[in-house]
Write a structure and sequence with these properties.
There is one protein chain. The chain is mainly α. It has one domain: Cytochrome c oxidase, subunit III, four-helix bundle (Four Helix Bundle (Hemerythrin (Met), subunit A)), CATH 1.20.120. The chain is built from six helices and no strands. Helix 1 runs parallel beside helix 6, helix 3 runs antiparallel to helix 6 and helix 4 packs antiparallel against helix 5. The protein starts with 19 loop residues before the first helix and ends with a helix. It is a multi-pass membrane protein. This is Cytochrome (Ubi)quinol oxidase subunit III. InterPro entries: Cyt_c/ubiquinol_Oxase_su3 (IPR024791), Cyt_c_oxidase-like_su3 (IPR000298), Cyt_c_oxidase_su3-like_sf (IPR035973), Cyt_c_oxidase_su3_a-hlx (IPR013833), Ubiquinol_oxase_su3_dom (IPR033946). Belongs to the cytochrome c oxidase subunit 3 family.
């Protein structure tokens, strides 16, 4: 299958589901996302129940702690990366491998920018005394945002491996579903972050 040569005219309209294996990958990524929704629902519920809870005199409130400008920049980076992955899938459907590689590379760079700001944010909080074990609130915050950050790392490693492994192979019906599954996972990460931005940062600062 990997040796089959295609042209834009002979390339399937839905390469991500053109083979039985591809359909299995498509179903598999959605099953995984559904299970992951359960994970995030539990950590969201935990955060909401423990928000602003901690020992007297040792606590930071959400309104005092969070910085909306930084969170907004992080949000824009991640949402833009979701858009660039859409462009990559557009080129994938049109059998333009260079376009796929280019836009997925931009997606990775934007994701790395987001991750760098999140690491800076965590470092800043720990530096001012808001560490993981400082209170129930801090534990819930770092668990929720850190779980999302771990998913970002997984997504970046996934996409980078695809870019490197297929750099000389070109686009085919074997790797197209893999790019598509990675793109779906990345969109899921972005949607989760929108909820985090709203529930944690926006509601935390504005009440």
């Amino acid at each position: 299958m990997e040796e089959t040569k295609f042209t834009p005219q002979t390339w399937p309209d839905k390469p991500e589901q053109a083979t039985p294996e591809a359909k299995n990958k498509f179903v598999g990524i959605w099953i995984f996302i559904c299970s992951d929704i359960t994970l995030f629902a539990s950590v969201f519920a935990t955060y909401l129940s423990l928000k602003d809870k901690g020992p007297a005199g040792m606590e930071f409130s959400a309104a005092e702690l969070f910085e909306l400008p930084l969170a907004f920049v992080m949000t824009m980076l991640l949402l833009t990366s979701s858009l660039t992955s859409v462009y990559a899938m557009y080129h994938m459907k049109n059998y333009n491998f260079k376009g796929v590689q280019l836009w997925m590379t931009i997606t990775v760079l934007l994701g790395l920018g987001f991750l760098a700001l999140e690491i800076y944010e965590f470092y800043h909080y720990v530096h001012i005394g808001f560490g993981y074990t400082q209170s129930a609130f801090s534990s819930a915050f770092f668990t929720l945002v850190g779980t999302h950050g771990l998913h970002v790392v997984i997504g970046l490693v996934w996409i980078i491996c695809l870019l490197v492994r297929n750099a000389r192979r070109g686009l085919n019906l074997y790797n197209a579903p893999k790019y598509y599954a990675a793109s779906i996972f990345w969109h899921f990460i972005d949607v989760v972050w929108v909820f985090i931005f709203t529930v944690v940062y926006l509601m935390g600062v504005l009440g």
